[in-house]
C-alpha cells in the first residue's frame, strides 16, 4: 500500500509539473539557448555562415560581370542563371555547415572556463528533447547559473585546485548525469527503483546540481577560495559516482 501511495504521489507531482510547464508556455523550442555562452557560439557560427554566403554571392556576381563583359552581355537567360545560382548558394549556406555539437568527452578540454561552459550548454541543449519536461525546464536555470559561474572563474587562477574540481562538475559530472539517463531505454525510465523512477532521480539530481552551482558562485562572490575548494572537492566526490541504473545519486 505504501508503495502504491508513493507511485500515485509521484504521478500526481509529475502531472502537476507538466501542466504548469505547459501553462507557462514552457514548451520545448528547438534551437533555444539555455545560456549566453551557447547563444554566443551560435551567433559566431551564424556569422561565419553569412560571411561564406556573402563571399559566394560576390563570386557569382563577379563571374557574371566578367562573362557579360567578354561576350557583350549575359541576356535574360544569363540573368536567370545568375539569380538561380545566388539563390542556390544562399540556400546551401543557410543549411550547411551545421553547428557541430561537441562530444561528451571534449566538453572539459582546454583552459578557458567560459569555453567549457559554452560547450556544456550546447551539449545539454542537444539532449533536451530526450529529457522529461521538468528536467528540460531545469536546464534553463542551470544554463543561467553556468554563465555566472564561468564569468567568475575566468578571473581566478586556473591552477587553483578548486577550479579544476568545478570544471569537472560543469564539464563532466553534470553532462554525465544526463548522458547516463538517456542511455536508459525509454520504457524503463518510469520503473521504480529504490523508491524513485529514473525521471524523478534525474529531475531531483539536476535541481541539486543547480543549487550547488549557485552555492559555488556565492563562494566566489565572497572571495573565499579555500571554502570553494572544500565545496568543490565534496561535489567532485558526490557527483563523480554513477549508480547501476545509469542515474546519479540525488
Walkthrough of the structure:
With 250 residues, the protein is mainly alpha-helical. The protein folds into 2 domains: 41-95; 102-239, no CATH class. It is 70% helix and 2% strand. It contains 8 helices and 2 strands; from the N terminus they run H-H-H-H-H-H-E-E-H-H. It has helices at 2-23, 36-71, 75-95, 113-127, 133-153, 161-182, 198-221, 225-239; strands spanning 192-193, 196-197. A two-stranded antiparallel ribbon has the order 1-2. Strand 1 and strand 2 form a beta hairpin. The chain is elongated and about 80 Å long.
- Average pLDDT for all residues: 81
What is the tally of beta strands? 2
Q: Distance N terminus to C terminus?
A: 24 Å
What general form does the structure show? elongated
Total of domains: 2
Helix content: over 70%
How can the largest sheet be summarized?
2 strands, antiparallel
How much of the sequence lies in strands comes to under 5%
Helix and strand succession? HHHHHHEEHH
Content-based structural category: mainly alpha
Unreliable stretches covering 5 or more consecutive residues = 1-28, 242-250
Put simply, the count of helices is 8
Indicate the radius of gyration in whole angstroms: 24 Å
In short:
The chain is mainly alpha-helical. The chain has eight helices and two strands; from the N terminus they run ααααααββαα. It folds into two domains: 41-95; 102-239, no CATH class.
Amino acid at each position: 500500500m505504501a508503495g502504491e501511495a508513493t507511485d500515485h504521489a509521484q504521478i500526481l507531482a509529475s502531472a502537476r509539473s507538466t501542466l504548469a510547464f505547459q501553462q507557462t508556455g514552457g514548451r520545448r523550442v528547438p534551437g533555444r539557448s539555455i545560456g549566453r555562452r551557447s547563444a554566443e557560439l551560435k551567433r559566431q557560427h551564424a556569422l561565419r555562415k553569412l560571411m561564406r554566403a556573402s563571399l559566394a554571392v560576390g563570386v557569382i556576381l563577379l563571374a557574371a560581370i566578367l562573362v557579360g563583359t567578354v561576350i557583350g552581355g549575359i541576356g535574360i537567360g544569363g540573368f536567370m542563371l545568375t539569380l538561380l545560382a545566388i539563390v542556390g548558394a544562399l540556400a546551401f549556406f543557410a543549411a550547411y555547415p551545421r553547428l557541430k555539437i561537441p562530444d561528451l568527452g571534449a566538453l572539459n578540454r582546454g583552459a578557458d572556463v567560459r569555453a567549457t561552459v559554452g560547450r556544456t550548454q550546447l551539449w545539454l541543449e542537444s539532449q533536451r528533447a530526450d529529457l522529461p519536461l521538468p528536467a528540460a525546464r531545469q536546464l534553463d536555470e542551470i544554463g543561467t547559473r553556468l554563465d555566472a559561474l564561468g564569468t567568475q572563474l575566468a578571473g581566478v587562477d586556473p591552477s587553483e585546485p578548486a577550479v579544476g574540481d568545478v570544471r569537472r562538475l560543469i564539464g563532466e559530472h553534470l553532462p554525465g548525469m544526463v548522458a547516463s539517463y538517456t542511455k536508459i531505454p525509454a520504457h524503463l525510465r518510469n520503473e521504480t527503483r529504490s523508491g524513485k523512477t529514473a525521471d524523478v532521480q534525474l529531475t531531483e539530481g539536476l535541481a541539486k546540481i543547480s543549487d550547488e552551482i549557485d552555492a559555488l558562485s556565492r563562494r566566489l562572490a565572497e572571495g573565499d577560495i579555500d571554502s570553494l575548494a572544500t565545496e568543490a572537492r565534496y561535489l567532485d566526490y558526490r557527483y563523480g559516482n554513477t549508480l547501476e541504473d545509469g542515474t546519479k545519486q540525488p
